Amino acid sequence: MRPLNFIVLGIAAAVSLFLLWLWWYLGFSKVDAPADVLITVAWWLVIGLVVYGIYRMEARRRQQMRTVYVSPTALFNCESGLVECTNTNKRIDMVESILQNMRYGMDFEDMPDPADFAYSYIIRTEDYKNADDWRGTVVKVDRSGNSKERSFSSRTSLATALL
Fold first, then answer.
1. Are 68 and 120 in contact (CB under 8 A)?
2. Strands lying side by side in the sheet with 81-84
3. What is the phi/psi pair of residue 45, to 5°?
4. Are residue 81 and residue 127 in the same domain, yes or no?
5. Residues 39 and 72 reside in one and the same domain
6. How far is the C-alpha of 12 from the C-alpha of 106, rounded, in Å?
7. Of these four, 4, 21, 28, 99, which has the most CB atoms within 10 Å of its CB?
8. Are residues 139 and 93 in the same domain?
9. 15, 21 in Cβ contact below 8 A?
10. Dihedral Cα 69, 78, 82, 137, nearest 10 deg
11. Element of type H or E holding 36
């Protein structure tokens, strides 16, 4: 999650706690109906669901941003843009470099024109910590509609999937 999301959620939680404390301190709990406690609990459930939703959306966005399109001459990632890579032996090194330098910002590069960039593989990284802890899938793109997807769990299995 982005730091701003944590700040907003922290402020919402602090305000909720303050209002709950104020409700008890001012004695409204003695005057109001018991349904108010249920409303407070429901409010906390809503906050919890919002936190979980933001977390899942951010995790999905980051996973989508880690997608790298591979052509015989270049790589494309929505954050780093088009990166030239004519040496096929250096592809995995360059993909790893792209993943290590990800900032997960909000600025995205546009996908190049298919006439200029005909990718043959799509690398979707689910989780990346280092070269040994790298999970995802590789899709070998077949323009006739028979694309094949293979999963990988390390750098070596990614190299095998790209053959």
1. no
2. 81-84, 74-77, 68-70, 121-128, 134-140, 148-152
3. -65, -40
4. yes
5. no
6. 24
7. 99
8. yes
9. no
10. -20
11. helix 35-65
